[in-house]
Design goal:
Blueprint lengths: L8 E5 L1 H16 L7 E5 L3 H5 L5 E3 L25 H6 L4 H9 L3
Amino acid sequence: MRQGSHDKLSLASNIAVSQFWLTPQVNEYLLSRDAVPVTVTASNNESDILNQDYDVVVYYGNDIPSGWEGEILFKEFWQPLAAPSLIATDPTLALARYWISKSWH
């Protein structure tokens, strides 16, 4: 977080993080008594996010970018999903059937 003025807050993130996680957090914050105006920049171009002067950057990636200080907010979990009736009838989904049968039981 950038040190300085507290009369506004500038945030940046990639588009998916902004849409699915950051925007709901900002909306909740804006309802608080201590809220200040907020600007959000959303871009999938990493240089738009990391090469500008924002108060806070929510970065989506495998690690904190070199030269930055940060904290991991949450880990991500991916799992393939398909309707059982589709998997049973479509031979091209054999790999999905295998993954689903082995997935995290």
